[in-house]
Amino acid sequence: MSISKYEAFLKTVELGSLTRAADALGYTQSGMTYILNSLEDECGLTLLRRDRTGVQLTSDGQEILPYIEALCESWRLVSEKRDELKGMESGHLRIGTFTSVSTHWLPGIIHAFRQSYPNITFELLHGDYAQIQEWLLRGRVDLGFTQLPLRDGLSSLHLKSDDLLAVLPEGHPLTEKASIPLDELLTEPFIMYAENTPGGIRVMLNNRSVKPNTQFVVEDDHAIIAMVEGGLGVSVLSDLVLRRTNFHVVRRPLDPPVRREIALAYPEGRTLSVSTRRFIEYVRSWREGD
User: Fold this and answer.
1) One-letter-per-residue 3-state SS of 125-171
2) Is 167 within the bounds of a domain?
3) Into how many domains does the chain fold?
């Protein structure tokens, strides 16, 4: 059985571009067009609408999408079971993650894991906490690094209580304090992180009686730190984000302390592939030894 045309369809939907999907899968654009046309001929339906802005699902495509996702997931599990019976000679793991985990944890975790399982390949999808949990529920990824609490239908391995810290320019008056009252910090010119996810910094700040004096909204962690270093304002970032940075800024704990709970999540009640189970086991041992 060839599953490639269904995988090509899913990759095109994911990326919203036939050209980018072809590049990701190693096809020519004409080859990708042929594959998608063949799938539509097989189904007797128009699944994708293609124009200069990209590719969008038709109403028929929306209807059939979850069935194609389920088909690819079932085929992946068949392949994983085959690999398990053969001694796990190969396998593929799809992991949802966010930037600070990808930067500070995953390179070391994956490198060490592949010492034992060198033929396991990885696909990393970057998103925010809500997206990652949605991908897990839809079967788009096998595992996801995310923040607690989780949506119904997911289980997790708790990894770290990650402190949120005040980030200040050197010489700022608040740097004289050992810890920074959050309400006092919020009155300063504030550089806000653009991400708005359940349990995220925006939600935490929006629950305060004092609203942040937001002067800038920025999407990138390092851009925020650079702007703080440049004296444009203050911010709040996690301890994990602030590791291994060369910026000249001052970090202080918040008063009262605020933390995010990072976990490795996976679908509840679903049969996990052998490579998924082995990766969870490895991350558990990594956590205990960290």
Assistant:
1) EECCHHHHHHHHHHCCCCEEEEECCCCCCEEEEEEEEEEEEEEEECC
2) yes
3) 2
